[in-house]
Fold this protein.
Amino acid sequence: MKLALVTYSEIHSYGSVSSAEDGVLTSYLTSKGLDITPEVWDDPNVNWQQYDLALFKSPWDYFDKFDQFQAWLEKMENVGLRTLNPISTVKWNADKHYLLEIQESGLPIVPTALLKRGQVVDLEQFYTKFNTDKIIIKPTVSGGAKNTFIVKHAQQQEVLTKLQELLVSEDYLAQPFMPQIQEEGEWSFLFFNGNYSHTVLKSAKAGDFRVQHFFGGTIHPQEAPVHLLPQAQKLIDLFAQGCLYARVDGIDVDGELQLMELELIEPFLFLHTHEPALENYYQALVTLMQK
């Protein structure tokens, strides 16, 4: 079976740790006898029909080229190329409207409100609704904290013009700033083929709210908190069926795992933080290849 590892052309732009993970994973899978080749998703010269299976790994610019990415997904469906994770899942997960669907299912998410494209924004209502003096604004289609910013109650008028300009072209989400991000950190639970693998705790640098390592955040391998892991597993069981990988990002709010993001397209997998992680990935892949 011939496999493609789906990546993007600017692989080093998110830092050496991120780019190294692709290389380590490819080398490990090759050492196991798999025929796997990294391919840039929007390279017009790639012959996707030569592959039996494509593994989404790091198409980290999909949100910058969203229309093109959606067209490419349609092309892969027309070609009949099987992908992991499945294209239907990728389409659903590419837009953070999915958070509201998860909330409707009865599972907890960080409190979230939708700012629809073109609407006139009244931020004041959200400070009251969320009982906070800081709001996080983020696009529904984004990654790497792109166009994500914090708005303090006293400064809302200063950012309204910018936000209205951003809302001309796309939807945004409003969420309360969660103090747990700075006090404890954000948990990431990694699963392969629905089975738990490992956990890290991501911490923002002092004075920041972004936990990504390329913004100065730090990564701490941890044992999964026994009260949070079953909650993460429930999210996987309901929304990540048939997925090679899934990452549940969330915070502990009084013992409840409130979801920040369910990453099913191109999450960094923190493979370097847990010795069995590469083998866990490989075993999950072999199992799914046989289905």
